[in-house]
User: Which sequence fits this backbone?
């Protein structure tokens, strides 16, 4: 039983105590970090002490989650990362679903301004088109990261709060929801904060259900991309070849999101002609690793950049686009 007193929430920013990471170790629910978390849940969000005792008691560290956080799939070279995701199975099933949900996707394109093949490609990559939403108890995974992964502890504190608010909204027991090791859930694999900000009720049920409702899933994906600047019909990327001809381009590759250059500069120093960028926005320079050991260089347009807000990985963004191209090329 949790015996913490209810006192005003302190602004101390307490982090979970650093204890040895042992698989199955019970969470330190009497630590300052958990005391503050529980106080906020009760005082600011109206949860009862009894509810929290029921949900948190018995939670333990899941060491496998921490191992996966340090070995994410997106860290693999592009040629290894992309091959299984662009399989004939993913392409074939995506094409079937594009046809099956054509009328729904018409409405989504009209309302949100995001091409259907992009929406369906993300659906496929995130959950195999709803076929696999993850096998981890996300309540346990988020608490594992909060308690035993200090560099993401503050972020996952917020996710735990948002997740419990979602469970209250959808009348779910938080201990029963399955998802990814990072806390994403549903067919769209939203983390809780993304669900609260961008999920959409598109089937008129009064609930934003990204677990069971395909209309809500697909509309929520489109709404997310629209929020981060997706423009219908605008360029996504342009090829720059296998060599960069100017130090500024090479510096931009290493600078990540900060590494942007005007289109005119890229054209001049690389000797290429590029399509216009919406509102003349700058472009990023992206390097994708190839099997032969060289690189494929791209100019990443704002639509490409919008996908990186979903998943901060150039590899992921390019696989979304390449899968979408294959879905469209029937």
Assistant:
């Amino acid at each position: 039983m949790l015996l913490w007193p209810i006192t005003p929430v302190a602004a101390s920013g307490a982090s979970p105590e650093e204890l040895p990471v042992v698989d199955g170790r019970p969470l330190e629910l009497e630590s300052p970090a958990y005391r503050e978390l529980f106080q906020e849940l009760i005082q600011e969000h109206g949860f009862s002490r009894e509810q929290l005792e029921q949900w948190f008691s018995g939670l333990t560290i899941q060491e496998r989650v921490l191992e996966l956080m340090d070995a994410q799939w997106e860290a693999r070279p592009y040629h290894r990362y992309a091959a299984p995701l662009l399989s004939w199975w993913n392409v074939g099933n995506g094409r079937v679903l594009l046809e099956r949900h054509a009328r729904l996707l018409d409405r989504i394109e009209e309302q949100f301004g995001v091409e259907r093949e992009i929406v369906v490609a993300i659906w496929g990559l995130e959950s195999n088109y709803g076929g696999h939403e993850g096998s981890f108890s996300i309540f346990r995974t988020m608490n594992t990261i909060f308690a035993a992964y200090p560099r993401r502890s503050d972020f996952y504190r917020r996710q735990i709060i948002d997740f419990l608010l979602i469970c209250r909204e959808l009348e779910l027991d938080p201990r029963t929801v399955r998802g990814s090791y990072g806390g994403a859930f549903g067919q769209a694999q939203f983390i809780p904060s993304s669900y609260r900000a961008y999920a959409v009720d598109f089937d008129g049920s009064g609930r934003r259900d990204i677990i069971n409702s395909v209309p809500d899933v697909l509309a929520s994906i489109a709404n997310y991309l629209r929020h981060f600047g997706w423009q219908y019909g605008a360029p996504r990327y342009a090829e720059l070849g296998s060599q960069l001809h100017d130090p500024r381009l090479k510096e931009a590759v290493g600078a990540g999101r900060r590494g942007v250059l005007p289109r005119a500069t890229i054209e001049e120093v690389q000797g290429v002609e590029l399509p216009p960028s919406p509102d003349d926005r700058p472009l990023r320079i992206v390097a994708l690793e190839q099997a032969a050991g060289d690189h494929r260089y791209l100019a990443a347009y704002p639509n490409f950049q919008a996908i990186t807000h979903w998943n901060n990985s150039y590899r992921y963004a390019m696989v979304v686009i390449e899968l979408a191209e294959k879905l469209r090329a029937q």
Remarks:
- The CA atoms of residues 131 and 236 lie 28 Å apart.
- Residues 1-12 have pLDDT under 50 and may be disordered.
